[in-house]
Specification:
311 residues; alpha/beta; TIM Barrel; 8-stranded parallel β-sheet; 12 strands; 14% strand; globular
């Protein structure tokens, strides 16, 4: 008689499902360790795009939708939407625009990042957005209680959150403060707000380099190193940032700005940068940058020379 008769079946071993940030518009966007850099389109932001602001202020929503559509066509995998303008009813503008986006499948197929410094505007967006979105942002600048309250509300609406490296003492502008604030926020979210680590996206603050101020010289390299440490110390979180901030000192010189963005991203992505708010379709290829320009830009971004910003 076969020895297997009467033996117990082996228990099923459940598969190990890797942690992923799971977002969606009409289509899913799953972000994990193997995912390439995720582009968040920046042009649907009234504070960052004068052209978009004019359209919204004029009530020209069809053309404003065309801006969003162009970002998606140019490769944006998410779109950042901001209506923080003093002359606007920001809550109404956010609600109107998101409802119009939802009616356009070629735009609404990608997830939305609801971006505002006012929680009332964020919540207005959360009430009407479809799919699983991202809140940009929450922070501890008003203390832990307000931070946890907003984070719990975001979670109730099903959103992931971008957490700024900003606490009661102000924005983090050096390596240690960036790591310290993000670590503190991580423990609050996971231990007191029931967040999964993969639903936390840290923004360790990208500031302008080559400003002529000595204290600003390390802004680029400190962000890159903070990204490396946060990813190592806080498993499964994502890192994001507003990439165009790094080149603000060169506004008006598009060729140099695009080179700075490319060089900065080249190094930041290797350190663990998951996603970034960018002008989709206008990112230079690192290898295609003219070698002398690339060397000068790397001197600035990586703070390799005291006179880097003057060359």
């Amino acid at each position: 008689m076969p020895s297997s008769i009467g033996s117990r079946p082996r228990p099923r071993v459940p598969p190990v499902i890797p942690a992923r940030l799971r977002l969606s518009g009409l289509e899913p966007l799953n972000i994990g360790p193997e995912t390439l850099f995720v582009n968040i389109g920046e042009r649907t932001n009234v504070t960052g795009s004068r052209a978009f602001a004019k359209l919204i202020l004029a009530g020209d929503f069809p053309q404003a939708l065309a801006v969003a559509r162009q970002q998606v066509e140019n490769g944006a995998q998410m779109i950042d939407i901001n209506m923080d303008e003093a002359m606007l009813d920001s809550e109404a503008a956010m609600t109107t625009f998101l409802n119009l986006v939802a009616a356009e499948p070629d735009i609404s197929r990608v997830p939305v990042v609801i971006d505002s410094s006012k929680w009332s505007v964020i919540e207005a967006g959360l009430k009407c957005v479809q799919g699983r979105c991202v809140v940009n942002s929450v922070s501890m600048k008003e203390g832990e209680a307000a931070f946890l309250h907003q984070a719990r509300l975001a979670r109730r609406y099903g959103a992931a959150v971008i957490v700024m490296a900003f606490d009661e003492q102000g924005q983090a502008d050096n390596l240690e403060r960036r790591v310290e604030i993000c670590t503190r926020a991580y423990h609050l979210l996971t231990e007191q707000a029931d967040f999964s680590p993969e639903d936390i996206i840290f923004d360790p603050n990208i500031f302008a380099v080559a400003t002529g101020i000595e204290e600003h010289a390390r802004y680029g390299v400190d962000f890159i190193e903070a990204t490396r440490r946060i990813k190592a110390d806080l498993p499964d979180v994502s890192i994001s940032g507003g990439v165009s901030n790094v080149s603000f000192s060169f506004r008006g010189n598009d060729a140099v700005r695009e080179a700075i963005h490319s060089v900065f991203l080249y190094h930041a992505i290797r350190a663990g940068l998951t996603m970034g708010i960018v002008n989709a379709g206008q990112l230079a290829v690192y290898e295609n940058i003219e070698p002398e320009l690339r060397e000068h830009v790397e001197d600035v971004v990586l703070n390799r020379r005291a006179d880097a910003g003057e060359r």
